[in-house]
C-alpha cells in the first residue's frame, strides 16, 4: 500500500516534469516508407562521386516526390558533395544515409535543407552515416550541414555530423520531432553550434556534442521541448538563447545533462528585448571543469542589445545539480543577473551543489527573486548585483568522470576524425533507444510515432512498452521492467 502510494507520487512528479505536448516522430512505420527505394545510384550517383548533390536532388524530385512511401537511399561508401540540396514538400518518406558525405565546395547556406516534410525519418541503418564538413579548410566561411525547416512528425537519428565550417544541425520552427543517437564533433571555436532548436514538441535525447559553442540549445520561438541524456564532451555548453525582441519560450525540460569542460553547465542568455521565458525545469545536471556553472545572464554581451525592457524570466527551476567550475575567484558558480526593468521571479535553486577547482565560491544575484543561492524572496523591483561568498556545500561530491571524456577540444586547423556514436550519454543511464545497428538495422521501430506493433507478446530489453499512442506489448521479457520515461515513452530496462 505504502509502496503503491510512493510509486504514484514518483510517477506524478515525473509526469509534472514531462514537457512534451503530444507524440513525436514519424506517424507511420519505417516499413511504410520502403515501398519505393530511391537510391542515388539510380539517379546519376556513384560511390566515390566527386559531387553527389545532383543525384540526391534528382532522386528526391523524380522518385520521392512522385512516390509516397519512399526512401531516398545513400548506400555505404564515400561521396564528395559540392552542390547543396533542398528537399522540400514530401510526405511519408525517409532519408537513409548509410554512406559518408564530405563537403568540398565553400558555398554558404546548408548542404542539406529538408523543408515542409511530414511523417519523415532521417537516419542511418548502420549508425555510421555521416556528413564530414572539413571545416578546417574554410572556418566560418562555408555551409552549415543540415537544416530541417517547418517540418512535422519527424525523427533524426543514428547519424554523425563532423567539423561543420559553421553550425552543424538546425531544427527550425518544426514540431513533433524526435532527435536521438547523434554524435556531433566540431572544432574548439565559436560558431560551431551542435543543435539549435526552435518550434514545438521536440524530444532530443542521447546526443554527444564536442565544439566550442552551443551544445543542444533552444532558440526562439519554442515550446514543449524535452532534452535529456546529453553529453557535452568539451562543448560550449547548452543554453536557451540568445534572446531579444518578441521572445516566447515556455514548457521546457532539460534533464540528465552531462557537461565535461566548456563554457557553462547551462545558460539563459538575453540582452534587452521583450517577451518571456517561463516554466523551465533544469534537473539532474553534472558538470566537470566548466568556466561558468548555473548562469542566467540577461546582460549577455556577445549579443547586441535589443530594444525593450528585457525578456521576463519566471518559473525557472534548477534542481539536483552537482559540479565544479574551474575558477571560483574569477566567476560566480551561481549567477542570476536580471534587468531592473524586468526582474526574474519564481526562480528555484534546489539541491544544486556547485564548487570550484580553486576552492573559492561566490553567488551573484541581481533583480532576481525566488529561493536558493542569493535570490531574494517574494517579488519586487530591481536591485543591484549582490555577490556573496559561500563555503563548499556539505552535499557536494565530485561528479563521476565518464570514460571517454575528452581532455581538450579539437584543433581548428586540422582534420577532425569521424567518431562512433556512443551508447551512454549520462553516467548510469542507458540510451533510451538502442543504436539502429544494434537492433537489426533498426528493424524494430523505436519511435513513439510508429503505428506498428501488437498488444500481445512481450517487449524485449530496451524496447518500448508503454506511452500515449503506443499499441504494442506492455509486458517486458524477464527480467526487465517497464520503466516510465515520459508520458509518451516507457521502456524495458
Ligand atoms: C502530425 O501528427 C499529428 C499527430 O499524429 C497530426 O495531428 C498532424 O496532423 C500531423 N501533421 C501533418 C502535417 O499531417
Ligand atoms: C512556423 O511554422 C508555421 C507552420 O507550422 C508557420 O505558420 C509560421 O509562419 C512559421 N514561422 C516562421 C517564423 O517561419
Ligand atoms: C569524448 O571524446 C573522446 C576523445 O575523442 C572520445 O574518446 C569519447 O568517445 C568521446 N565521448 C563520446 C561520448 O563520444
TrEMBL record:
Broad class of the protein's primary localization: secreted
Location(s), subcellular: Secreted
GO molecular function: cellulose binding; polygalacturonase activity; rhamnogalacturonan alpha-L-rhamnopyranosyl-(1->4)-alpha-D-galactopyranosyluronide lyase activity
UniProt-listed SUPFAM superfamilies: Cellulose-binding domain, Pectin lyase-like
SMART domains: fCBD
UniProt keyword annotation of NAD present: no
Annotated ranges, domain CBM1: 457-493
Recorded coiled-coil stretches: none
Alphabetically ordered keywords of this record: Cell wall biogenesis/degradation, Disulfide bond, Glycoprotein, Glycosidase, Hydrolase, Secreted, Signal
Family that this chain belongs to: Belongs to the glycosyl hydrolase 28 family.
Protein known as: Carbohydrate-binding module family 1 protein
